[in-house]
Design a protein that fits this description.
This protein is of the alpha+beta class. The chain folds into three domains: 24-196, no CATH class; 217-278, Phenylalanyl-tRNA Synthetase, Chain B, domain 1; 285-350, no CATH class. The protein is built from 13 helices and 13 strands. Helix 3 (82-97) packs parallel to helix 6 (182-189) and helix 11 packs parallel to helix 13. It is globular and about 65 Å long.
């Protein structure tokens, strides 16, 4: 009998079925909020606080790239619904930075999401969260705008699925599974994301949030960015009249002059031009850490010249460092290899400088 027992080395415990790596668990409580660049650049989310059933189509200046957004019977996903996407993206990027495996299916605690996105945690918060999940899954997108180098030509939802895993006795969600679309997940894997100021979740007006997103995407760390009022209205996805849109922008500008509440960027209007100015308040710690940790020698620069002929390698290095800092990325394990890979892709996309 002793021999029989020795032969059976199985644990008396049941297998850990939670460790099947078919979903990713959100458990990083201080993850920096991040948004994907594609939906920051294009008007995917509605600015309305009421059900929005408008079908909308946006084309970029070249007319080659387009995105068409179709609502469900519950209306388009709103810019406040986007909080869920930001939370999921933030968690997945933070896990990637730690070298962890991630999946398109993200499991999260409803309470953690509500706290992280500055929402109320009473019954209203859980009810609004459920409605957001429904709109996110119901809103369909058709586009030829690529994410992560992959062009998505079919029609897809912002999230493929939302599933409530556990509820309390009074019906409040405890755990949720969100399956991200390929379009969003491709952007995450390619680090096509930007870090957002935490006060983004404190902005009351949907238009304020949209203006900040556009400034973060197009102005970034530059001193300023200018855009015409009509072009700004299209990028915002606003369905107001031009007169009303001008009034709304003017009201935000006046309020910001009084309170300086808009994160990172000040806004002013000169005739039909809107100017975004970098306040110089953007967190530069990530860039400083990367500069301290990453040292590239002459050999790396020579290799960069070989894979990106014609380009100034010092310009490419600064662009690479800014890209990592904006994305909130940690220092790569092999900086030289990562830099050469960046230069190679840069040349592949742009060719020789004109």
């Amino acid at each position: 009998m002793v021999g029989d027992i020795t032969k059976d080395n199985r644990s008396p415990l049941l297998p850990d079925r939670q460790d099947q790596k078919d979903f990713f668990v959100c458990d990083i409580f201080d993850a920096a909020p991040k948004g994907d660049m594609a939906s920051m650049a294009h008007p995917i989310f509605s600015l309305s606080t009421k059900p929005d059933h408008h079908l909308r189509r946006y084309e970029d200046e070249s007319g080659k790239n387009y995105v068409e957004i179709r609502p469900s019977s519950d209306g388009l996903a709103t810019i406040h619904d986007r909080d869920i996407l930001i939370y999921c993206i933030s968690q997945v990027i933070a896990a990637l930075n730690e070298g962890r495996e991630v999946q398109r299916v993200v499991r999260l605690k409803a309470y953690d999401l509500l706290k992280a996105t500055n929402r109320v945690t009473d019954g209203r918060g859980y009810k609004a969260l459920r409605a957001s999940l429904i709109r996110l899954q119901g809103t369909q997108i058709e586009t030829n705008i690529s994410t992560g180098g992959t062009e998505q030509l079919d029609i897809f939802s912002i999230i493929d699925r939302a599933r409530i895993i556990r509820e309390t006795r009074d019906g409040r969600m405890q755990e949720i599974e969100v399956e991200l679309s390929d379009w969003v997940f491709n952007a995450i894997r390619a680090h096509e994301v930007l870090t957002l100021h935490r006060n983004y979740f404190r902005l009351r007006k949907p238009l304020e949030r949209r203006l900040y997103e556009l400034a973060r995407k197009h102005c970034g760390r530059q001193k300023q960015w200018k855009i015409g009022l009509s072009a700004l209205q299209r990028k915002c996805g606003s369905i107001s009249t031009m007169r009303e849109f001008r009034r709304l922008i003017g009201a935000i500008i006046e309020q910001d002059k009084a309170h300086h509440h808009m994160p990172d960027y000040a806004i002013c209007m000169e005739g039909d031009m809107v100017l975004f100015e970098n306040r110089g308040t953007m967190d530069c710690l990530a860039g400083d850490v990367l500069d301290d940790q990453i040292k590239l020698g002459s050999e790396a620069h020579e290799k960069a010249r070989a894979v990106a002929p014609g380009w100034d390698v010092h310009y490419l290095e600064q662009t690479w460092r800014s890209w990592m800092a904006d994305g909130g990325l940690d220092a790569p394990r092999d900086p030289e290899k990562a830099f050469i890979g960046f230069c190679s892709k840069w040349f592949e996309k742009r060719g020789r400088p004109s």
